[in-house]
Write a structure and sequence with these properties.
The protein is α+β, with helices and mostly antiparallel strands and about 240 residues long. Helix content is about 25%, strand content about 35%. Its main location: secreted.
């Protein structure tokens, strides 16, 4: 071993030197050179830093640098995130998205253009005026659509989703809410009163019928039984024969 190479290193290094830092790493760690001024220092990391990608070899695992426009990459030719001012598309960083795609400034990617989609028109609403369906002759009725898919920045915008047209109805008077409520309350009370009256009459009728039935039963028990009248023809028959 060279006199400047040490075996008792810190920070995951297998071998190191005082001047160049890590020279080799412990198993499963990645070796990367970090520049400090004019000097490069070797370090051992569990994962590669931003702008680098990891490669594993039998003798050493290294961090290699991504392309200049890549912020992170899977390999040198496949970026996973671009630096500011570039848009990611199929592993490449582009300044301008291809035709048929648009730049998404939120994700910094080239995405498909999305057009607006809406549902079919709803049925026309009842003819109304100032929120009421009575007390007028001419009003308006409305129908609407629902937005199913909002458009992207370069997509076709949504059309009008509300339509209104004039309408004519048979004029009718509006029933006042207070009066209507009062009438309903009076009808309910009258109905309950009629039901109570009918119930009382039925109860009285049943009581009277029960009283009459009991009276007849008592009379039949107290009155003596009537004797049978004699048969006149039978009584006179012997006398006629003797004569």
């Amino acid at each position: 071993v060279h006199p400047n190479v040490s075996q008792g290193c810190q920070g995951g290094c297998a071998t190191c030197s005082d001047y160049n830092g890590c020279l080799s790493c412990k198993p499963r760690l990645f070796f990367v050179l970090e520049r400090i001024g004019m000097k490069q220092i070797g370090v051992c990391l569990s994962s590669c830093p931003s702008g680098y990608y990891g490669t594993r070899y039998p003798d050493i695992n290294k961090c290699a640098k991504c392309k200049a426009d890549c912020d992170t990459c899977f390999t040198r030719n496949f970026c996973t995130k671009c630096k500011s001012g570039f848009y990611l598309y199929s592993g490449k960083c582009l300044e301008k998205c291809p035709d048929g795609l648009e730049a998404n400034n939120h994700t910094m990617e080239c995405t498909s253009i999305v057009h607006c989609e809406t549902s079919e028109w709803s049925p026309w609403s009842p003819c109304m005026k100032k929120g009421k369906t009575c007390g007028f002759k001419r009003g308006n009725e409305v129908r609407v659509k629902e937005i199913i898919q909002h458009p992207s920045a370069r997509g076709n915008p949504c059309p009008a989703i509300t339509e209104s047209r004039k309408c004519i109805v048979q004029r009718k008077r509006c029933q006042k809410e207070g009066k209507g409520k009062k009438n309903r309350e009076e009808k309910r009370k009258k109905s309950n009163k009629d039901e109570s009256k009918e119930t009382r009459q039925e109860s009285k009728g049943r009581a009277a019928r029960r009283q009459n039935r009991d009276q007849r039963e008592n009379n039949s028990k107290t009155q003596p039984k009537k004797r049978k009248a004699p048969n006149k023809e039978q009584d006179l028959a012997p006398a006629d024969t003797a004569h």
